[in-house]
Amino acid sequence: MFTNIFDTYNWHEVKQSILAKTGEDVLAALHKEKRSLEDFKALLSPAAIPFLEQMAQMSHLRTQKRFGKTIQMYVPLYLSNECQNICTYCAFSLDNKIKRRTLSDAEILQEVKVIKDMGFDHILLVTGEAMHTVGVSYLRNAIRLVKPFFSHISMEVQPLDQDDYAQLVEEGLNTVLVYQETYFKENYKKYHPKGKKSNFNYRLETPDRLGKAGIHKIGLGTLIGLEDWRTDCFFTALHLRYLEKQYWQTKYSVSFPRLRPIDKESTGTAGKKSFETYMNDRELVQLICAWRLFSEELEIAISTREREVFRDNAVKLGVTSMSAASKTNPGGYVVAPESLEQFEISDDRPVDVITGMIRRQGYEPVWKDWDRSFS
Question: Mean of the pLDDT values across residues 137-152?
Fold first, then answer.
């Protein structure tokens, strides 16, 4: 299990190692064809900032070589905001006294119709973490409902046991996104003080259980804004490299969501909670390029959390998939558009505007790039 490797590393030593990288280390990394974890540290480091233009050009060429001039389109469908965890950065947190809602079969199909009319063929099912209301039986039923309408079904829900994942794969689940949130174990519980999510090791071993269950693709990542992003991304890369060796038939993707403001109702008075910015746009560009130079095969996603101008410029940097017209609340497309969002999105442009932007840059928006019959 990855925990055996993870436990041999020290967060503080890794952070100091990244900060100690020099311009010479960055140049050495850039001149290699295959890059090690030490090279990745150099590309993440502050010493790499003066090389950003060179990194961007290399990332652009490397991405086109593997993926062509394409951007895969996807959209989230929030099924429920029920959650039994307290997470200090999430509007669905148990201690946020909001109206809870879980979509019925009829409501799911209402949302699906609107999403299909927008052209999507890849859907991401999202829930809070509440096994008693949105457990395996609910998820299995949801997959059965949406499967006739979509070629690719992804899921971002609570971590499950290996047998649970195997059941959902059998139903037609293709991809699971599971973010560690932060790999800084000392502080993990500070952000997750209550609920099953507070179990750091159970979450850390989730990709192992997914690999053993035979999932087609695993999405990794951390929340940018909780802890030092450079150190968190190194541990994500360490995790990825382990998984690629252990579960070599599985595909992988990575994303790096920056925390967005949320509505807080817990005090009985509506209020907004914002977060300290740990990463500026220039650093996010550095991170995208560093990932691409580290892994040619890795899919890189960027969501509507990011601003229009950043997403427009990210198309040629190394990104391979984008969401569009996203709603982050259950029933947000048509059933209950006024329900509480999990977080505020930044890019609220309609789908045709996003795809037009992609085409004007010489890229093709792709709605379907995989079929179960070929697996």
Answer: 97
In angstroms, the CA 242 to CA 220 distance is 12
Round to whole Å and give the CA distance between 243 and 3.
Answer: 12
Angle, helices 105-117/136-146, rounded to nearest 10 degrees? 40
Residues linked to residue 124 through DSSP beta bridges, in sequence order: 76, 154
Domains and CATH numbers, the chain: 2-22+36-369 (3.20.20.70)
Cα→Cα distances 153→56, 162, 180, Å? 31, 18, 21
Q: Please give the share of the chain, as a percent, with pLDDT higher than 90.
A: 84
pTM for the structure as a whole: 0.94
Q: Of the candidates 139, 142, 141, 147, which has an alpha carbon nearest to the alpha carbon of residue 164?
A: 139
SS3 221: strand
Alpha helices in the chain (DSSP H): 2-6, 11-19, 23-30, 37-44, 52-67, 105-117, 131-134, 136-146, 162-171, 185-191, 200-204, 206-213, 229-246, 281-294, 308-314, 351-360
What is the spatial distance between Cα 5 and Cα 2, in angstroms, rounded to a whole number? Answer: 5
User: Closest Cα partner for 232 from 59, 49, 3, 14?
Assistant: 14
Which of 25, 2, 60 has the alpha carbon at shortest distance from 293?
A: 60
Q: What is the pLDDT of residues 29-72, one digit of tens each?
A: 999 999 999 999 999 999 999 999 999 999 999 999 999 999 99
Sign of the dihedral defined by the CA atoms of residues 292, 299, 85, 199, in that order: negative
Q: Assign 205 a pLDDT band (cuts: 50, 70, 90).
A: very high
Has residue 266 got a pLDDT over 70?
A: no
